[in-house]
Amino acid sequence: MHRPIVIIRLDGNGRVYRPGEVLSGEFRLSALPERPPKALEVSVLWYTEGKGDPDMAVHEFWRYRFSDQLSVDLRRPQRFSTQLPNSPLSYEGQIVKLRWCVRVRVFLADGKEVVGQKVFRLGGIPPAKCIGNGFAASQRTALLGVVDP
Amino acid sequence: MARVIRLYEKKRGHRRTGSARVGRLGELLFFAVLSLLGVVGLAAMFFWLVVPQWQVSHRFVPHTCVVLDTRVRKHPTEDLFRPEVKIEYQVDGKTYVQWTYDIATVRDDPSSYLPDQKEQAEAAARFVVDPEKPREYPCWYDPADPHLVVVCRGSKWWTWLAFSVPLSVLLIGAVGLVYTWVSWDKSAERKAAISSRLAPKRVLRANGESRPQFPYVPDGKEITNSPGTKLRFRLPMAASPGWPLFGLFLAAVLWNGIVGAAAVYAFTLFSQGRPDWRLNIGLIPFVIIGLALLGYFIRRLVMTTGVGPTLVEISDHPLVPGGNYRLFVSQSGRLKVQRFSVALVCEEEAVYRQGTNARSETREVFRQQLLCHEGFEVGSGVPFEAECTMQVPGGAMHSFRAANNQVRWKVLVAAEADGWPPVVRGFPVVVYPPSEHNILAYQCTDRL
Amino acid sequence: MSDCWHLAAENPFSASRVRPGATPFIFDELPSLDRLLEQLRASKYWGQIVGPHGSGKSALLAALKAALESTGLEVLYIELRAGQHRLPINLRKLAGATKISVIIVDGYEQLGWLARMWLKRFCRRRKLGLLVSTHHPAGLSTLATLRPSLTLAQKIVAQLQQGYPELVLPADVAACFAATYGNLRETLFALYDIYEQRRSGLGKL
Questions:
Q1: Are B423 and B414 in contact (CB under 8 A)?
Q2: Does C112 share its domain with C133?
Q3: Do residues A119 and C6 lie in contact, with contact meaning Cβ atoms separated by under 8 Å?
Q4: Which residues of A touch B407 (CB under 8 A)?
Q5: What's the whole-model pTM score?
Q6: Chain A interface, mutation test: which of B10, B346, B367, most A Cβ atoms within 10 Å?
Q7: How many domains does chain C have?
Q8: Are residues C52 and C139 in the same domain?
Q9: In this predicted complex, what is the ipTM?
Q10: How many domains does chain A have?
């Protein structure tokens, strides 16, 4: 069986979003599965990556349940929008990275799931190395004295 | 189509732990049984302890009686006791003579027996037996059966405490049940969405106005609850040496106390001409450890008190990127300082847990020296003081705290002094997300 | 645009990717998964996986768990943390409520002597399988002894970097493997830093 792919597009075409701004976009399926999906969830969330166990929190969440007869054609773009929070902002650190994304999860009739995700940037925080006067390359917290700039 | 609980899940490619549903069913049943046990326990406690007391207080008829005798009765098999009072009273012209005390005694309940014999004797002695002039005391009898009579009302002190046991079991079961049910068959995003809805949405300031929420940014309340003497706030130190020092002191005292007692005993035997060489030899490593512990404590104490407290005050808090702040630093002690510096530092912390390993790594990603002095002395009673300004970089990442990952900012004070190991003390600060006009101005690419 | 930025910003050695079960287990010098399953079946699903820290015991357990479940067996997976000397769940209630066939304990040596005796007796009485990971032999029949090698480390790194810019070279793997005394987990974490430093040259395109 040919599995559908989730396609997500954000308004603004990949620009950086500001805290408090409205994030809007649309999602659709590349094809309809043989049997209509049971449910569909759309989440706007952030997650961490790096050297630590991942953390995740959902900012906005929608869930749609479908009966045997789908009343909406999921091949056509379905809109969503939400007001983004003040924090946390997207961040490219050294061992901690924070990413925002829109994630669409489709629950198929056979019990399997199809997931699509689109990452976006919230806030214009530059990567860690760009900040300030000098990049500290120490790997451990300096507890032995001052590191001369 | 009815959905069947599958006992296994096939895996292809990206693997996940399977059989989650069966596991959750087991969890659900476990918490359901726990909840049931809690309910049954509570009900049993209620009917056993509370209902009889209620009946005495609301159904029994107040009356008077005459005390003929008192005793302390021992439990037939255990070392437990209860007071008993022999009384005589009339109801509807009929005379009754009964041994009684409270409702538990009348029902011959095991809870009427208690371990403290003296306390039970005192309870019995409160009823004075005077054959010449028998005294009258109040009593309460059951109108349905006047043989049931008590001279003491009210529940024992431990009655309500006893409820804590089934209540705890019920709470654990109920919470687990709710959690398991709520997260049944839900995606990770849905579970996270449910838990985030339970979090408070807005924060009220002390003056009542509402502040927009900054999720996952520490609020820094513990930082602003201490006013400064020169600037607005005094920053608390990241790790105060007080409690670890106290812990070390306790450990040293306990260890050396026990070892010391054993050493005294060994010496006593020795002085009596009956040395126990096995004890003497066995004590040696313990004495060495005790002395090492004591020495380490004294060294830490001297270091802490000798170097003296470091005070850092700041003109405002929380901080924002692009903001300018004044800092006041004071260092006490008797020191010949080679180098004294203050820096603003940002570090990331990531915690990774796998099996028996828990690994935490910290990485400094930003450091800005604010102040540096070399070659001076700090005298006793005359602390070294300095002020400086600090600007948080415009594009700085705000403070962030989640379960496994953090971004932390702090003011780091480091001192190298003659005769002392280098001392570094951190004072956490909270940086909030940047204001809007700073965000775009400090967007930076990697093309340096 | 944001996708390019995102891909260039990903580190294939991040914790979520090196976690046991995140990528297929590489058997290298070990017997194949089918052979291991056969051995397990022959020993009535009792066995131990022995190896030092960071040798891939949890990853192998994750692969075996998936394989056991695909044969229709119900598996209970228990992961013990440092200092956990007792089982964190009520096995009796769970086993009574569900049809568990095999219990897997990751970190078996954390259990106290009494807890281990109880667990073995529990499994024997109920005819359950018991598969454990441990740093030292723990009295069960050894299913596999893991001795991480540089070859294995190179293969794992190659697998992780599939689809990513190959910024970590075999020489880097060799250096980190030697520096961490053959601890695969620490090797991968050290390679994270190397990859991170080098990928910053790709950045936002």
A1: yes
A2: yes
A3: yes
A4: 91, 93, 96
A5: 0.66
A6: B367
A7: 2
A8: yes
A9: 0.84
A10: 1
